[in-house]
């Protein structure tokens, strides 16, 4: 007996009442209605199929003596059975009738199944129409013994019957079967919802289970399940699983829960009763505030993260964050978790201080301990200022370079730069600015900057330009062209240049004590002054340079200027004539002219005779017929030509100065020549004079003539010694002495051939 009870308890699929699954009956043949006299076999089955052990049979609730798993019956009534591991089966009503016409229904029939109805006569003769009815309403008809099918029957109390028409030789009539109630069995009982645990703690998981079972003969039927809280479906809706796992349940989830089960074909659907689930809440405890970055050390501009957590506490917790000394709440969050965080972006210097947080889940707020937050401030961009003793920085001044950043945590290291070179560094342990003193030299002009660094990133200042004014050095005066002898009409360049000095520089040019002019060099360097030489260019020349820091004067440069004499002009002209005659092959003609002149002198001819005319005529011929470019190409020969018969002695000795090669355009302008007179002083004297020229000086002549010429000449009539005679000289000696004899006797002929040629 104890073994039977143990098997009953441990049997799979037992329902919530603690009873074992039902046994079930099988009929052979599978009809619930038969003709009287026929036999039907009953088989008792349970989940083990076939039944194990003794079977108890009941007929109309009375225990029968049979104990086998199968019995044969032939009496109408209700039959049921029970095995050692099952509960009682549903009763089956088997009926044996003596009627001519019966209506049979298939067995067993479950909810949602199809049912076969067969109208059967005791003696089947000629086929006739059989009509089926449900609750008096016609369902259909057949002309054979075949059954009709009823789809998806349910647990209902409907009555079914059938009719058939009969006739014989004499008459016809209608047969009607006895009403039949179809015995529909329950496919599965209403489900039962269970929760585990039945009283969960807030925040803990809960498992919901929707329990029901299927009879063994319908174990292949597929069911679906759905869980509800009040009228809201949980999870993903309908599912083939009879369980639902809730990961965390909260106090507000306390409510009524129920479930539904249905077949896949939706033919049968049933719901459970509602079950009340109450969720238990745990108060918060051990509130803690954590700061990130760790340690509470931040750099201005970083993000501050405040994490508030609790060791215990369930349900919805409200977290809030605070800073000591302020009433305003920094932030508040309500959520179902044991921790929450508040992010303060881009912290400022004013965000430093002590922080705390609070947590509450309806039982009252719990506060954390105070936590300190400190900030380090990166350097702002420094400002560089240059302080000079005067408005304009001058070489030798001591200037102060002041670098200061308005914000930044100390200590601060400052570095000073000139262009890209480091000048020095200075530290500010307590913050603020720093200075660097610099003694200025000429090389200190340029761009200056500074850098500030406190370990959080260096910052550079803007560039500041410092212009160091350099006093001008002593200038140097040079004459250009150098090393040549200038003549009247030349343009002489006076170049004055100071090697050092800040621009702009003003240059002054002086001749003796007179100012020639001034020129500004806005960008520094030297400058030039062009002087057109007049009659008096000789003297002392100098220049001065000034850039506002003091005038510097150059050394004096002396210029000696020589006025070209008439004899020199004749010398130059004859040189040109000789050069050109040699080029043109006129050497023979020149020789004849010179020979003729020599003979004339030996005979004591007049100084105004034919040779002078011949020389003038030859020179005029050359100047008129020789191209000017040929004369220019041979202009250099003017200075290299030696005296000849057409040259007259110089009126005065030239001043010693460096010679210069004049070009054709640089020849000095000659004074206007007057008529020539001969033998103005005839008599017995040994000397014969001839007037060479009569000058009438004008302003223009004074301006274009050399200054030294007019200082040594007071008369407007110029005479030249023509011939000195000696009593012991003879005409033959005079004619045969040649050049040497003529020089010894100082016998000259004053012929103005050069002047005439040039005028031509």
From TrEMBL:
Xref: PANTHER family: FC RECEPTOR-LIKE PROTEIN 3, IMMUNOGLOBULIN FC RECEPTOR
Keywords: Disulfide bond, Immunoglobulin domain, Membrane, Signal, Transmembrane, Transmembrane helix
SUPFAM superfamilies registered for this protein in UniProt: Immunoglobulin (SSF48726)
Domain Ig-like as annotated: residue spans: 21-95, 189-269, 283-374, 382-469, 475-548
Protein name: Fc receptor-like protein 3 isoform X1
UniProt keyword Membrane present: yes
Signal peptide: 1-16
Gene transcribed to yield this protein: LOC103559228
TM ranges: 569-593
């Amino acid at each position: 007996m104890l073994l039977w009870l143990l098997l009953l308890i441990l049997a799979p699929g037992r329902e919530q009442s603690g009873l074992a699954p039902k046994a079930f009956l099988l009929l052979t043949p599978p009809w619930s209605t038969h003709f009287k006299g026929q036999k039907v076999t009953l088989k008792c089955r349970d989940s083990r199929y076939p039944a194990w052990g003794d079977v108890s049979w009941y007929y109309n609730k009375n225990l029968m003596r049979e104990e086998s798993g199968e019995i044969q019956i032939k009496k109408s009534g209700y039959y049921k059975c029970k095995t050692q591991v099952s509960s009682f089966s549903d009763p089956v009503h088997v009926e044996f009738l003596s009627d001519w016409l019966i209506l049979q229904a298939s067995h067993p029939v479950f909810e949602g199944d199809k049912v076969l109805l067969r109208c059967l006569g005791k003696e089947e003769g000629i086929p006739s129409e059989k009509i089926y009815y449900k609750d008096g309403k016609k369902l259909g008809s057949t002309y054979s013994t075949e059954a009709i099918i009823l789809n998806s029957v349910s647990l209902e109390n409907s009555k079914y019957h059938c009719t058939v028409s009969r006739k014989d030789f004499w008459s016809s009539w209608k047969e009607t079967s006895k009403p039949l109630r179809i015995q529909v069995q329950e496919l599965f009982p209403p489900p039962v919802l269970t929760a585990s645990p039945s009283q969960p703690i807030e925040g803990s998981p809960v498992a919901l289970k929707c329990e029901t079972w299927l009879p063994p003969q319908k174990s292949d039927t597929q069911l679906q399940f759905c869980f509800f809280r009040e009228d809201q479906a949980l999870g993903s809706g309908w599912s083939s699983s009879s369980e639902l796992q809730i990961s965390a349940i909260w106090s507000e989830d306390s409510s009524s829960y129920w479930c539904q089960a249905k077949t896949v074909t939706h033919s049968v659907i049933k719901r459970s009763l509602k079950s009340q689930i109450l969720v238990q809440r745990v108060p918060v405890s051990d509130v803690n505030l954590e700061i990130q970055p760790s340690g509470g050390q931040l750099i201005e501009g970083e993000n501050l993260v405040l994490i508030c957590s609790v060791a215990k506490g369930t349900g919805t917790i409200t977290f809030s964050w605070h800073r000591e000394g302020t009433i305003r709440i920094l932030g508040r969050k309500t959520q179902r978790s044991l921790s929450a965080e508040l992010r303060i972006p881009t912290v400022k210097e004013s965000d430093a201080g002590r922080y705390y947080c609070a947590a509450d889940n309806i039982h009252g707020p719990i506060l954390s301990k105070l936590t300190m937050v400190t900030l380090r401030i990166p350097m702002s961009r420094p400002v560089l200022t240059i302080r000079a003793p005067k408005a304009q920085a001058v070489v030798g001044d001591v200037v102060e370079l002041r670098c200061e950043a308005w914000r930044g945590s100390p200590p601060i290291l400052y570095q000073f730069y000139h262009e890209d070179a480091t000048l020095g560094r200075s530290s500010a342990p307590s913050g603020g600015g720093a200075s660097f003193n610099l003694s200025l030299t000429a090389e200190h002009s340029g761009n200056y900057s500074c850098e500030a660094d406190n370990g959080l990133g260096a910052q550079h200042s803007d560039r500041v330009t410092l212009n160091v004014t350099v006093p001008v050095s002593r200038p140097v005066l040079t004459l250009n062209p150098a090393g040549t002898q200038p003549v009247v009409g030349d343009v002489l360049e006076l170049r004055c240049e100071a090697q050092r000095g800040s621009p702009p520089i003003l240059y002054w040019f002086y001749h003796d004590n007179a100012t020639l002019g001034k020129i500004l060099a806005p960008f520094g360097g030297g400058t030039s002054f062009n002087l057109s030489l007049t009659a008096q260019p000789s003297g002392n020349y100098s220049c001065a340079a000034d850039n506002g820091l003091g005038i510097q004067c150059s050394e004096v440069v002396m210029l000696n200027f020589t006025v070209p004499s008439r004899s020199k002009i004749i010398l130059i002209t004859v040189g040109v004539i000789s050069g050109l005659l040699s080029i043109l092959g006129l050497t023979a003609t020149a020789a004849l002219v010179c020979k003729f002149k020599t003979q004339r002198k030996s005979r004591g001819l007049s100084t105004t005779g034919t040779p002078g005319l011949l020389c003038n005529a030859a020179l005029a011929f050359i100047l008129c017929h020789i191209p000017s470019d040929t004369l220019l190409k041979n202009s250099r020969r003017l200075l290299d030509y030696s005296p000849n018969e057409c040259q007259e002695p110089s009126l005065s000795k030239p001043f010693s100065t460096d010679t210069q090669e004049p070009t054709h355009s640089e020849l000095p302008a000659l004074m206007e020549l007057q008529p020539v007179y001969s033998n103005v002083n005839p008599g017995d004297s040994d000397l014969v004079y001839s007037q060479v020229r009569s000058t009438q000086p004008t302003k223009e002549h004074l301006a274009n003539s050399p200054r030294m010429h007019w200082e040594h000449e007071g008369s407007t009539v110029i005479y030249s010694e023509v011939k000195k005679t000696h009593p012991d000289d003879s005409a033959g000696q005079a004619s045969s002495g040649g050049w040497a004899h003529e020089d010894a006797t100082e016998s000259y002929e004053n012929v103005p051939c050069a002047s005439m040629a040039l005028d031509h």
